[in-house]
Amino acid sequence: MGKKSMHLVRPKLQALAVTDKTDIDNYINSVYDGITDKNQLKFLPSFILFVCCVVEEVYCKKSKHHSKINKKDEVLHHICNFLAIALTEPEKLIIQNIIEDLHSSGRIKRVSFVSKLIFNLGSWFLKKT
Predict the structure, then answer these.
(1) Long-range contacts made by residues 45-51, C-beta under 8 angstroms, separation at least 24?
(2) pTM for this model (two decimals)
């Protein structure tokens, strides 16, 4: 599937720099840049979970602007942008059902600041040794 494995949002401080729609699209493209056939990711739950976690990370802030955003529509928007195609209504329904399943099972979560801090300190310490 390419150089990068299918992983969830890594708790790096780089994820904090993702702040708007274009940053989200750029971040998703940078993680999955080695994939030649992007259509194979369309219904893959791990990819949809990754996009959901990125959107949750960005839009979980406590501001008025972010509270009015429908995160499910945002996920569909970023998946469409990544695939560079327009999804049909049945495809959107399938993706929405996958998102609902991920949400109901409690798998869509923000990465806590403490986890990011521990991960980055550990990475820094390993680089120094």
Answers:
(1) 45/98, 45/101, 45/102, 46/6, 47/6, 48/75, 48/79, 48/95, 48/98, 48/99, 48/102, 49/8, 49/102, 49/107, 49/108, 50/6, 50/7, 50/8, 50/9, 51/75, 51/78, 51/79, 51/82
(2) 0.75
